[in-house]
């Protein structure tokens, strides 16, 4: 019995042109794979070492920016506790009658931003103990919960120190003339100030 001759198509070697095409494709795949690995490794490495920089979405108010309690589109103001914002707006209206205008220099802050401020202060004072007298930890800061607002300029601070209690607003740290919280009932008496953020 005669076997049929094996099909030549199965054993025919690839033509030179096809071999070159396959080789070129293999080189492309290898190059793309290598590029992908480099991108992934770089991205992982960058995210591991990139320093945090606060943005407006963290509650940052850029130095020199004029922000008021009316700026609902600014996260530092928009994410304040509503009762604090309302009380501050009432105080602001009363202060305006006396010719005094409020500016918000800081309000709500993300905990990452608060930690960044603390780290910065630790570097500045070369002491965590000293730094914490000026910057609370994220866990303790009333800025992170939206229950504190920093006000400028000085005449606005002095107006609030004198009249804020009528609106329930009090300076709460003796070493921070600009820092206000709702700390009493409207028309009440402000509690004794804490000496600093670490107290
Ligand atoms: Zn403050």
Q: How would you describe this protein?
A:
The protein is an alpha+beta fold and 199 residues long. The protein has two domains: 8-49; 56-182, Muramoyl-pentapeptide Carboxypeptidase, domain 2 (2-Layer Sandwich). It has helices spanning 8-11, 16-49, 75-78, 82-97, 111-125, 128-134, 154-163; strands spanning 103-106, 149-152, 169-171, 179-182. A four-stranded antiparallel sheet has the order 1-2-4-3. α5 (111-125) packs across α6 (128-134). The chain is elongated. The structure holds zinc ion. Zinc ion is lined by residues 106, 143, 148, 150, 176, 179. The site of zinc ion (ZN) has 6 residues, from loops. Pfam families: VanY (PF02557). Residues 79-158 form the D-alanyl-D-alanine carboxypeptidase-like core domain.
Question: What composes the largest sheet?
Answer: 4 strands, antiparallel
CATH architecture classification name of the largest domain: 2-Layer Sandwich
Strand-residue proportion: 5-15%
Query: What is the arithmetic mean of pLDDT?
Result: 89
Terminal residue distance? 104 Å
Any low-confidence stretches, pLDDT <50, length ≥5? none
* Strand segment tally: 4
What is the count of structural domains? 2
Oligomer: single chain
Strand order of the largest sheet: 1-2-4-3
Helix content: 40-55%
**Rg over alpha carbons:** 32 Å
SSE pattern: HHHHEHHEHEE
Ligands: zinc ion
Overall 3D shape: elongated
Number of helices: 7
**At the third CATH level, what is the topology name of the largest domain?**
Muramoyl-pentapeptide Carboxypeptidase, domain 2
Protein structure class: alpha+beta
CATH class of the largest domain: Alpha Beta
